[in-house]
Design a protein that fits this description.
Layout (H helix, E strand, L loop, with lengths): L17 H9 L5 H5 L5 E4 L14 E8 L4 E6 L2 E9 L4 E7 L4 H4 L5 E9 L6 E3 L2 E4 L9 E4 L8 H12 L11 H6 L5 H9 L4 H31 L2 E2 L7 H6 L7 H14 L6 E6 L5 H14 L3 E5 L3 H15 L6 E4 L5 H13 L4 E4 L13 E6 L7 H8 L6 E2 L1 E6 L5 H7 L4 E5 L10 E5 L4 H13 L3 E5 L14 H12 L5 E4 L5 H12 L5 E4 L12 E6 L7 H8 L10 E5 L5 H12 L3 H12 L2 H4 L18 H17 L9 H10 L9
Parallel strand pairs: 5-7, 10-16, 11-17, 11-18, 12-14, 12-15, 13-14, 15-17, 19-24, 20-22, 20-23, 21-22, 23-24
Antiparallel strand pairs: 1-9, 2-4, 2-6, 3-4, 4-5, 6-7, 6-8
Helix pairs in contact: 6-7, 7-22, 7-23, 9-10, 10-11, 19-20
Bound molecules: adenosine-5'-diphosphate and magnesium ion.
């Protein structure tokens, strides 16, 4: 076989045919380099641990033993057989049983010694083991040491992955070092070749720790470099400064007084908008904290200064709602607000595009449709995106690029995801931050409770009572339709049964993501106008929907949702002056699950909930789902590794002080790594 390199396709490796190739591609693995960068998710301690007699019970252990006598298979009934035998070491013996694996008989030769890995059970001196992993001593590759555990997929077994990794290991010396000797000395970091070998095949736990630390550092370091480069590039860009700033004129026209937090945020944004460099500000505030009006203030300033604004929402529903709000807040000032979404007719879209180009529209509210080809502005000065976690960095950039001319628009990003500050710093490293940490006055906290199925009838009584008081009710289901359920309530069928049997006398409507935009809109309009009593939905109503008369939120199979998501859903009620309720239904008895749900009952503070979510589930949710548009980190968990994060930040600062755009030849490998990390976000060096 030809010499392996990092670029060799995996099909050149032994055992990789078209089927395996496909399965590997699913894991994102196509070349040898991908394999080396595919880190284990866990490790099993398969080091040999002494005599059978001294080994602990009920936990995975590995030991060497000789097969004492031939194994025998007993057929119990159809589809059920047992293969049993005895293995011994100098002082003790273990009775080994395999279920439905008669073929092991021939693989276990009497008189030969094997390594066994599994859980020992037994009482007194009797020792047993069921379905152990075993290998002949001496030629072992998967026992006798620390064994990596890889994330797998159908068609790729642990053993197969292990063999691929062993083959790939010979290319480790070809990996380019990205951290200079000085840097490694300063932060006590292991070299690249050592780390890539040890992360896959650690000889000891200490080695593994050293490898992990280095690779984590490298990850955070590159993330930091990338974000800093993006930020630096921005400060070199020009924007139209909004010199005229008559915020009073805006606030005077409002139907309410701004909270202190809203006013502070608006002023922070206004100060940015005065500058000739683009604002890049994240406006963070819990559900219902009133972010929209701050965005409106910014759009007002843009208009005062002869600029257009664009507001991008993640769903049509939200876009339509924003349109209404903005028309109410800004229309009376003389601003022209319009909508652009994918579901509009070609003629409507064309008309809208023309009005944008001529400058007739002052604020355009829309969905991703705003990004499409042919949407041009006369003078775009401000881009606002709502619920930022649904958009990537690159999408923000795409909209900014539509400003035409040399000047870039200012950017305001609104997010209702209460991300803990430590994480926010990292995720939005390229943004300035305003936080609305105060709810508008007169809100009573939503009363939240967790109930089981046994209380369902009583709950239905409560629904009637709320509707009797003139209120409205949301019922959220985790699934759209029966086909994608596993014991989950589906909006479509459950809604129909509520309509037909449970509440035939009430007006029950159904809305979910698979409906046509127009139909969804009609249902939502009816609900907003109070023509519907009960709205059965999926999470399409999760973000931003604002119906102050709704006072009861019921969430079916609540255990199926993440805490932060439940919090978002709960935020749909308690928006008016009525006492509101949130009922979580779950029959799940899992202790951790119940603890999660109880957290929600105990607090309405989104930041507390996010911290708790983070503790209970780890940062995977913030970082795994790629909702933030940042590169995914493989190893580093930002909560646990704050110290390392700070070190990586320091190091990045140091490197960029010497070489601001990483153009020095000796930084080429580093530059390449940063580029790879940010690959999905376009070319960050241009
Ligand atoms: P979110 O931050 O979740 O997007 P919204 O901007 O939708 O919140 O505001 C939630 C509700 O609170 C809206 O009905 C809005 O009109 C109202 N609101 C916002 N600010 C105030 C305020 N200062 N006083 C009273 N009501 C307010
Ligand atoms: Mg909102």
């Amino acid at each position: 076989m030809a010499e392996l390199t990092l670029h060799t396709p995996l099909t050149a490796l032994k055992g990789v045919g078209p089927a395996k190739e496909k399965a590997l591609a699913k894991l994102g693995l196509t070349a040898v380099a991908d394999l080396l960068a595919y880190f284990p998710r866990d490790y099993e301690d398969r080091t040999l641990r002494g005599d059978i007699q001294t080994l602990p019970l009920e936990e995975p252990v590995c030991f060497a033993a000789m097969v004492a006598a031939p194994f025998h298979t007993t057929f119990l009934r159809k589809g059920m057989d047992l293969t049993k035998g005895r293995v011994v070491d100098a002082a003790a013996q273990v009775e080994v049983t395999f279920f439905n694996q008669p073929y092991v008989r021939s693989a276990l030769t009497p008189g030969e010694t094997y390594y066994f890995y599994g859980k020992l059970t037994g009482t007194g001196r009797r020792r047993q083991m069921v379905n152990p992993y075993f290998e002949r001593a001496g030629q072992n590759t998967f026992t006798g040491g620390i064994m990596p555990v890889y994330p797998l997929t159908a068609g790729i077994t642990a053993k197969f992955m292990g063999n691929l990794q062993k083959a790939a290991a010979q290319c480790v010396p070809q990996i380019q070092e990205t951290l200079s000797d000085d840097l490694r000395a300063a932060y006590d970091l292991a070299p690249a070749d050592f780390s890539y070998r040890a992360i896959h095949f650690p000889q000891s736990w200490e080695e593994l720790e050293r490898a992990r630390r280095r690779l984590m550092f490298e990850e955070l370091f590159c993330l930091n470099l990338g974000l800093t480069l993006i930020r630096g590039r921005r400060s070199q860009q020009a924007a139209i400064p909004f010199a005229k700033q008559d915020l009073e004129a805006f606030t005077a026209g409002l139907p309410f007084t701004l909270t202190d937090a809203q006013l502070r945020s608006a002023r922070e944004a206004a100060a940015d908008l005065k500058q000739p460099v683009p604002m890049n500000r994240l406006l963070q505030g819990d559900v219902g904290s009133g972010k929209t009006v701050v965005a409106a203030a910014c759009a007002f300033l843009a208009w005062e200064n002869g600029c257009q604004s664009a507001l991008m929402a993640p769903t049509e529903l939200l876009a339509q709602q924003h349109l209404k709000t903005m028309e109410t807040l800004l229309g009376k000032m003389g601003m022209k607000v319009a909508l652009l979404t994918g579901s509009m007719t070609a003629a409507q879209k064309r008309q809208c595009r023309e009005a944008l180009e001529s400058g007739e529209i002052d604020l355009i509210v829309g969905t991703h449709a705003l990004l499409s080809e042919g949407v041009e502005f006369r003078r775009l000065g401000l881009v606002i995106t709502d619920e930022q976690h649904r958009f990537g960095v690159d999408q923000r950039a795409a909209l900014s690029a539509k400003s035409g001319g040399a000047q870039r628009p200012h950017v305001l990003v609104m997010s209702a995801t209460p991300i803990p500050r430590t994480l926010a710093l990292m995720i939005y490293g390229d943004l300035d931050l305003s936080v609305i940490d105060q709810l508008p006055p007169g809100r009573t906290p939503v009363d939240t409770m967790l109930i089981g199925e046994d209380k369902r009838q009583r709950l239905y009584g409560f629904v009637r009572k709320q509707v009797g008081l003139g209120r409205q009710v949301y019922i959220v289901c985790p699934a759209v339709d029966q086909e994608d359920t596993e014991g989950m309530k589906a909006a479509e069928q459950f809604g129909q049964s509520l309509q037909g049997q449970v509440f035939p006398d009430l007006k029950v409507a159904i809305v979910h993501g698979r409906m046509k935009a127009r139909d969804k809109q009609a249902v939502m309009e009816d609900f907003a106008a109070g023509r519907t009593d009960v709205l059965v939905s999926t999470t399409v109503i999760e973000v931003g929907v604002d119906v102050p008369n709704a006072s009861l939120m019921i969430i079916e199979n609540a255990d199926r949702f993440g805490l932060s998501q439940l919090h978002q859903l709960r935020g749909r009620v308690g928006r008016g002056q009525h006492q509101s309720y949130c009922v979580l239904i779950s029959n799940n008895r899992n202790e951790l699950t119940r603890k999660r749900l109880k957290t929600l009952c105990a607090t309405t503070d989104g930041f507390v909930i996010a911290e708790e979510d983070l503790k209970l589930r780890g940062p995977g949710d913030f970082f795994g789902a790629r909702q933030h548009g940042l590169p995914q980190l493989k190893l580093a968990s930002l909560e646990g590794d704050m110290r390392l994060l700070h070190q990586a930040q320091d190091a990045a600062r140091g490197v960029l002080a010497d070489d601001p755009d990483l153009s020095r030849p000796d930084h080429a490998p580093l530059r390449l790594r940063v580029e790879q990390l940010f690959r999905e976000n376009g070319d960050i060096f241009n």
